[in-house]
Design goal:
Helices cover 50% and strands 11% of the residues. The chain is mostly helical. The chain has two domains: 30-87, Orthogonal Bundle (Arc Repressor Mutant, subunit A); 90-137, no CATH class. A hairpin with a 2-residue loop joins β1 (76-79) and β2. α2 packs across α4 (63-73) and α3 crosses α4.
Length: 138
Amino acid sequence: MRTMVFKWHRAFKEGRENVEDNPRSGRPISSTNDQNVEVVRAVVAKDRRLSVRMIAEETGLDKNAVHRILTDHLHMRKICGKLVPKNLSVEQKVNRLKICQDLLGRLKIEPDFLDKVITGDESWVFDYDPETKQQSVE
């Protein structure tokens, strides 16, 4: 940081008046423009099982740029080897509602149902019915 201050001080002392960076040659800093977003969207639409590296190779973009486009612009994330939108579709919401209603119905019929649940996540509920030593001997 201190070195940069000295560099700027020297530049202004030598007559520089503009505080903007000088134009540089080479690749632009950001390759996340509308055209590249659409290119990545088309590639992902063809095959959602591609890795970020494979998408980068196919599009000619940097891996970091592809990752930024997927997460920030297309609002996607990687789940089980498949890129999926973070937001649920209407069909997925209806399915989730049906599953929750089924679980609530089971809870009314069998009040100790949740005592048997070992673990759960958004997709699965694992049911376990423990046996006593006596039951396992039989």
